[in-house]
Design goal:
heterodimer, A: about 450 residues, alpha+beta, five-stranded antiparallel β-sheet, about 60% helix, globular, B: about 210 residues
Chain lengths: ~450, ~210
């Protein structure tokens, strides 16, 4: 926690989750209003100051806004907080100072006090933490979007990490979604309104699935088997101390990305972890046919012995048989340059019956985006993920996509797109250069 | 025949035990004083020598549970809790002890601890309230806040506490987790109010 974020975090610690839709809308609305006011004040002031001072002023404005939003998101703690995490994954859209502040949200959400933790334990496991564990650290060592993580020791001496969920978090997510739906009502006469509703409902089901730690435990176990014997470490679970609201897993020592980068690691080390992160994503994509949709730095532990800890499996989506077939078909068409087949894929993604119904502007943007996404695969050799032209091009495409804001797409596409953008953002942060193409194509050949 | 104090106490316990069972089996509303007398093996008139009404009887059960909740709190307390944490622990322990009375605590409290009457119509309710607030007074004093029993701070606390009980009695979430969030939020608000936490406003005034 730094000097700037501390007062805000202290402030939000004195608040609690407002579960009702109205209260949450009001809080969020007031925070947006404050950010808008900051921006307005910057816009006026910048006309009256010298150029070098403008830069300082802009940074000051950004910092104020980030702190305001950080305070609000910590307070809201529901799906809105997940939006904050998503923003942190897009460094080109957000200046670096803000990315770092948003990133702190992933680790420094306002904590639950120990009396509250004890009640969650009594409700979930029928016993107090001290009765279950040989020792239990009262202060959390990490915050997750839906809870916080405590270190503990089992009676056999094994060190564990215990994730405890905020009480009533599902209701806060439901309240967020309701607020969002109320805001969307103003757009109900737009032609794509129903598609927008589908996206919101899809997000709701994925986020609510994340609330169930047993579902996360199941997916974690699948991945543990998948990566057994590799340099990817998936935590071992302790089912006897795991419930829908408490997840007990082995403790993994190591650093998060931010800490790792602060040690000024060599290119070889950065490439090493970049390859492992990519492998974890691509391998589980092809083998388990799942999209790991929450690819943010807080979900990885970079270990001193060179292994990568993959530690959070809450937010994932499973391809249906039909959707997987469509995905494979689309990818083959992309790599083989078969335009007609690709257009048929696009029509399905955009939920049209025939390629002729597609909006040509949307197709144009989609194709440019696709080329950006597959560029590392087509490179057929080492690819520099932090190359300025590549990053700038991706950022401008993303801005264009947001401006165009087409809801006329298959909701599943959001998650795969989110995973890919999350991956590229992590690669950018690692400033890595490696043969991603070889890694991807080997996996694709083996499992498609 | 002269009834000894011991016999009186035994009969009283019998009535309370029978009432508790009947309330749990049939529900508070559907249980009559006639049912309770019959289950206790006494005449209906005798019941009223011990308890003025069904509500008073239920309030006595609630008061006993509140007392065991207070004892549970004292056992669980480590002495290292912050103010909010300690207040939370006290209320949560009490609710845990009151669990089997949750569904009918509303009408019972209405007659036994009404917020509208200065003096409770039920001595058991009055005693339970007194003991509860005495514990709150001690917790506050431990954290440097000396408050008189009739101070406005204690009245504020009591309003919040009854609000929590009212919410809890109707809480449909699994294991009443919504109430946990409400206790925490209410106690944070209470602690902020009594400590006149103005630091927040200052931070934002400086920023803006």
């Amino acid at each position: 926690m730094n000097n700037l974020t501390e007062p805000i975090l202290n402030r939000v610690q004195t608040r609690k989750i407002p579960s009702s839709s109205f209260m949450r809308s009001w809080t969020l609305g007031s925070s947006h209003a404050k950010i808008a006011a900051h921006y307005f004040s910057y816009a006026i002031q910048k006309h009256f100051v010298a150029d070098e001072k403008k830069k300082d002023l802009y940074s000051h404005f950004q910092l104020q806004s980030a702190l305001q939003l950080l305070g609000t998101m910590g307070y809201l703690r529901g799906a809105i907080m997940k939006v904050g995490q998503l923003i942190a994954n897009l460094p080109q859209i957000m200046p670096v100072e803000l990315v770092e502040i948003f990133e702190s949200l992933q680790f420094e959400a306002p904590p639950m006090h120990y009396s509250l933790i004890r009640e969650v334990f009594l409700n979930e496991l029928g016993r107090e933490p001290e009765e279950i564990f040989a020792s239990f650290e009262k202060n959390a060592f990490a915050a997750a979007s839906l809870g916080q993580v405590h270190r503990a020791k089992l009676h056999n001496g094994k060190e564990v990490a215990v994730k405890v969920q905020y009480p009533n978090i599902a209701a806060t997510i439901e309240a967020d979604i309701r607020s969002l739906s109320i805001l969307f009502q103003t757009m109900r006469f737009k032609k794509d309104f129903q598609y927008l509703v589908n996206h919101v409902q899809d997000a709701r089901s994925v986020f609510l699935n994340e609330v169930d730690y047993l579902s996360e435990a199941m997916f974690m176990e699948k991945n543990r088997k998948l990566f057994a014997g590799s340099k990817i470490v998936v935590l071992r679970l302790f089912p006897e101390f795991t419930t829908p609201r408490i997840l007990t897993m082995e403790y993994l020592p190591g650093m998060h990305l931010q800490g790792f980068l602060a040690t000024n690691p060599s290119l070889a080390k950065r490439n090493h972890f970049a390859k492992l992160i990519s492998y974890s994503l691509v391998h589980s994509w092809f083998c388990l046919k799942t999209v790991y949709a929450d690819l943010h730095p807080g979900n990885f532990i970079l270990m001193a012995d060179g292994r990568l800890g993959f530690i959070d499996f809450g937010c994932y989506c499973q391809f249906s048989k039909e959707r997987w077939k469509l995905q494979v078909d689309g990818e083959m068409a992309m790599f083989q340059g078969e335009r007609d087949r690709l257009m048929r894929y696009l029509a399905k993604i955009a939920m049209y019956d025939r390629p002729e119904d597609l909006d040509p502007d949307w197709v144009d943007l989609f194709m440019r985006q696709l080329h950006w996404i597959i560029a590392p695969v087509l490179a057929k050799g080492p690819f520099a993920f932090s190359r300025k032209e590549y990053v700038d091009h991706g950022a401008s495409l993303l801005k264009e996509t947001i401006q165009k804001a087409s809801a006329h797409t298959d909701p599943f596409y959001n998650w795969s797109n989110r995973a890919l953008l999350g991956h590229r953002a992590l690669m950018y942060r690692l400033r890595c250069t490696f043969d991603y193409s070889a890694l991807y194509l080997a996996e694709m050949k083996q499992f498609s | 025949m002269r009834i000894t104090q011991e016999t009186k106490e035994k009969t009283r316990k019998n009535i309370l035990g029978a009432a508790e069972k009947l309330f749990a089996d049939r529900g508070f509303e559907k249980t009559t004083t006639r049912d309770i007398s019959a289950a206790s093996g006494i005449a209906k008139g005798t019941l009223f020598n011990y308890f003025k009404s069904k509500e008073t009887l239920a309030m006595t059960l609630v008061a006993q549970a509140m007392e065991s909740g207070r004892k549970m709190f004292l056992r669980r307390k480590t002495g290292n809790e912050q103010l909010v944490e300690e207040l939370f622990l006290f209320i949560a322990s009490e609710l845990r002890a009151l669990k089997s009375y949750r569904t009918y605590i509303g009408p019972v409290l209405e007659s036994g601890m009404s917020i509208f009457s200065k003096e409770s119509v039920c001595s058991a309710g009055e005693e339970a309230k007194h003991n509860h607030l005495k514990t709150i007074g001690k917790i506050l004093a431990n954290h440097g806040f000396e408050m008189g029993y009739n101070s406005i701070v204690i009245t504020l606390y009591w309003s919040l506490y009854l609000g929590i009980l009212a919410h809890w009695s109707k809480d449909k979430t699994a294991k009443q987790t919504e109430t946990l969030a409400l206790i925490d939020y209410s106690m944070q608000t209470f602690a902020n109010t009594i400590s006149s936490n103005t630091a927040v406003t200052e931070v934002f005034c400086c920023n803006e």
